[in-house]
Design a protein that fits this description.
alpha+beta, about 775 residues, 4-stranded antiparallel β-sheet, 5-stranded mixed β-sheet
């Protein structure tokens, strides 16, 4: 891109990090502090300062501004427009000396009026390097003054505005070849990007960078004013590139089976045979398609696929990325061995790992995988669930040390002395042996808990039986967790996102069925009821819920992930209300998100704010693509209802993405799960019980069996009759001869009914 290159030449020598990550909030407010926001008129006669004063009264005396710029009474010296927002991430920046605007017309209209470029900064509340850049640059009064005098500064929470994030991340990747957060992008007042990167050190020489953020701000401002034609050319070319990247070319035909084998082959060439996952660092759980590998093994009997999946699950569970004492997974590992994470915990990572571990247990019989899933859900139930039953978004990496400083990972790490204080000498000795702790530590003088050796080996060295050691570990973990709770906890981002709640609802439902745990199903039902009653406003699903209000129209992934959750609940409970709501939301997708010409779904509804591109997401990232889940939902709706229109829509979507799938098979995971079910239709298993019977002999076998993609429903004979009025799949499904009876079907065609679990399993394994 010639235009971008001209600006790059001006800024040559800059190095920027692509490292995403973790934390923070913190201290005192009173109406007496000064607001730095411009006092322009807002709706009615209120100025920004008026609104800030009103919001200050609403927040009350307990509000603690997070800034180092405080007066002698602990009140914030600076306040900007972000104080009026509900996003925890935006509120973290509400008292920077930078005069931040939220994303919206006001910012870009002001930039146009003042003839200034826009400085866009995108991050999220638990992002470690976002906090570093804030502390180094956005809290720096000299840098803030330069920004305020020469730019219009806009701050975006990527979790609330994934559409904005996707557009400008695509631009940054086009410029630098990589991405991450914080994301820093320079825009024209027409919202077109002309330069960008991720984290920038504040000044020349900081962190080894020859060009610092302040110098970049000055050079880019000079380029914007002195070389306007070149900037406009760069912006135009980059905007066109973004549009091309975010709307994949139409394929025109259905993908073929071989593309999935190519994806698995690609994973094999990049596999880390020692630690699992993809070779190298950093390591993300989503980088290896574990669930696809398990399916590939089931269909092909390829032992390599199974071993790759099992080794990765084992090594992740043993590493420091897994919170050994408290359960749940941190976002990713900075090293190749899953040892040192960035310590933030994201709801979506844990939601996606639970089904992976449940399926790993079903496919291998390894009870350790089952236990990891249980501990993860216990963590979510205990720490990430609101009083109303919905799920919070994330917790931070950083926390306060006893000296009052914020340090990454301090909350989760230990010294040997802390072991002794919390456990006593004998248990401290066991804990050190189990978790590889020593006096030097493995992370900044402290110890991340991990499992460097097999437990049976440790048990032998300690002179204990494996059963006794496992009992000791349970007791030790409970004591460490209790002691840890006395430490200042990392910040929790308590906004509720529809998409991420959908993922976690599905995790609880799938674990609830597989593990025969009714409490998990109840928790999933409560969360789904919250979304349905509190996050659907005037018939529209909203993106987020915070401070008692839902906000922002839902995106594709909000609808797709939540529809999937509702279908999971219907399959687990046979309660038609879940199916009815799933069908309603699918109609919204069809009406407002569908690409009727080419197939597939856009990220945004047809009445959404017009941006420089309308993305049609297809690639997996940390989250599955919304299109992959939406296509899987259509296949499931077809299997449930036998209504061919769902299958036709799915076929059109697969055709739309065939070209990009076949050109980039290693970039997909969830899409291949959907494609697998399309090309190799799974079973529909209906188990019908008589009025006074049960299905235990069937469910005991089904729960522990790896039947990927299969619909499994346990219904009474009377309920089957009710469901038959809604779907022919349930027609003529009775308890034959008064015995519990199972029906194994594919594409609506059923085999002969069977009354024994052995008979059912033979049918399922023979086809």
């Amino acid at each position: 891109m010639a235009g971008v290159g001209l600006i790059v030449l001006i800024l040559s020598g800059n190095a920027c990090s692509n490292e995403p990550a973790g934390n923070d909030m913190a201290t005192g407010w009173s109406e007496g502090h000064s607001a730095m926001a411009a006092a322009g008129k807002r709706g009615g006669n209120m100025t920004v300062e008026d609104e800030i004063r009103l919001m200050a009264r609403r927040r009350g005396d307990d509000y603690r501004p997070r800034t180092r710029h405080l007066d002698d009474q602990g009140r914030a010296i600076y306040t900007n427009r972000l104080f009026l927002e509900s996003s925890p991430y935006l509120l973290q920046h509400a008292h920077n000396p930078v005069d931040w605007y939220p994303w919206g017309d006001e910012a870009f209209d002001t930039a146009r009026r003042l003839d200034r470029p826009v400085l866009l900064s995108v991050g999220y509340s638990t992002c470690h390097w976002c906090h570093v850049m804030e502390e180094e640059s956005f809290e720096d009064e000299e840098i803030a003054r330069y920004i305020n005098d020469n730019y219009i500064a806009v701050k975006v929470d990527r979790e609330e505005r994934p559409d904005v994030d996707a557009i400008y991340m695509s631009a940054v990747q086009a410029i630098t070849g990589r991405g991450g957060w914080p994301m820093t992008v320079w825009l024209t007042p027409d919202r077109e990007p002309f330069y960008g990167g991720t984290y920038f050190p504040a000044r020349d020489g900081d962190r080894g960078s020859p060009v610092g953020f302040l110098t970049m701000l000055k050079k880019i401002r000079e380029s914007y004013h002195d070389k306007r034609d070149l900037v406009a050319q760069s912006a135009g070319e980059l905007a066109r590139t973004v549009r091309q990247r975010l709307t994949p070319p139409a394929g025109g035909r259905l993908p073929l089976d071989g593309v999935m084998d190519r994806a698995v082959s690609s994973s094999k060439t990049r596999f880390d045979a020692v630690h699992g996952g993809i070779a190298g660092a950093p390591k993300f759980p989503s980088s290896l398609p574990i669930r696809l590998l398990l399916r590939h093994h089931r269909r092909s009997s390829d032992p390599v696929s199974l071993n790759m999946a099992a080794l990765t699950l084992k090594k992740m569970a043993a590493g420091g990325m897994n919170d050994q004492a408290g359960g749940g997974f941190h976002r990713y590992s900075t090293d190749a061995g899953w040892l040192v994470p960035h310590f933030e915990k994201m709801l979506y990572d844990n939601a996606l790992l639970v089904p992976a571990y449940i399926e790993g247990w079903q496919a291998t019989g390894n009870s350790r995988f089952r236990q990891v899933a249980i501990k993860t859900l216990e963590y979510v139930s205990r720490e990430m669930t609101s009083p109303d039953g919905a799920f919070f978004s994330a917790t931070d990496a950083d926390s306060l040390t006893p000296s009052g400083h914020r340090e990454e990972g301090w909350f989760f790490t230990w010294t040997l002395e802390e072991f002794s204080d919390a456990l006593g000498a004998d248990d401290a000795r066991i804990a050190a042996a189990v978790y590889g702790a020593d006096a030097r530590g493995n992370f900044e003088g402290r110890n991340i808990l991990f499992l460097p050796r097999e437990l049976d080996q440790v048990a032998g060295e300690l002179g204990l039986s494996l059963v006794q050691l496992e009992s000791d570990i349970d007791r030790i973990n409970a004591a460490l967790y209790a002691r840890r709770q006395a430490r200042p906890a990392p910040l929790r981002d308590d906004k509720i996102l529809a998409a991420w709640n959908g993922l976690m609802i599905s995790a609880f439902v799938r674990a609830g069925f597989a593990l025969d745990n009714a409490a998990y199903l109840d928790r999933a039902s409560r969360a789904a009821d919250f979304v349905l009653t509190r996050m659907i406003v005037a018939g529209r699903l909203k993106r987020s819920f915070k401070d008692g209000a839902a906000a922002g129209n839902g995106f594709l992934d909000d609808h797709a992930f939540f529809i999937a959750a509702l279908l999971d609940l219907f399959e687990a409970t046979a309660d038609l209300r879940w199916l009815d709501r799933a069908l309603e939301l699918d109609r919204t997708l069809a009406d407002q998100f569908d690409d009727p010409e080419n197939g597939g779904f856009f990220m945004t509804a047809d009445d959404h704010e017009a941006l420089i591109a309308r993305e049609k997401p297809v690639f997996d990232g940390a989250l599955p693509s919304g299109n992959a889940v939406a296509l899987m939902n259509l296949l499931r709706l077809n299997a449930l209802t036998l209504e061919p229109s769902y299958l036709k829509r799915a076929e059109k979507g697969f055709s739309a993405f065939s070209a990009i799938i076949e050109a980039n098979p290693s970039a997909f995971g969830e899409m291949f799960l959907a494609l697998e079910d399309f090309l190799h239709p799974p079973h529909q298993v209906i188990v019908v019980t008589p009025a006074d019977g049960d299905a235990a002999s069937f469910t005991d076998r089904l729960r522990a069996s790896f039947l990927p993609g299969s619909l499994v429903m346990i219904v009474s004979e009377s309920r089957a009759g009710q469901l038959s009025r809604r779907s022919p799949l349930f027609r003529d499904k009775t308890a034959a001869g008064g015995k519990t009876t199972a029906y194994a079907c594919q594409n609506g065609a059923c085999q002969l009914p069977v009354t024994t679990a052995d008979g059912l399993m033979r049918q399922l394994t023979a086809s």
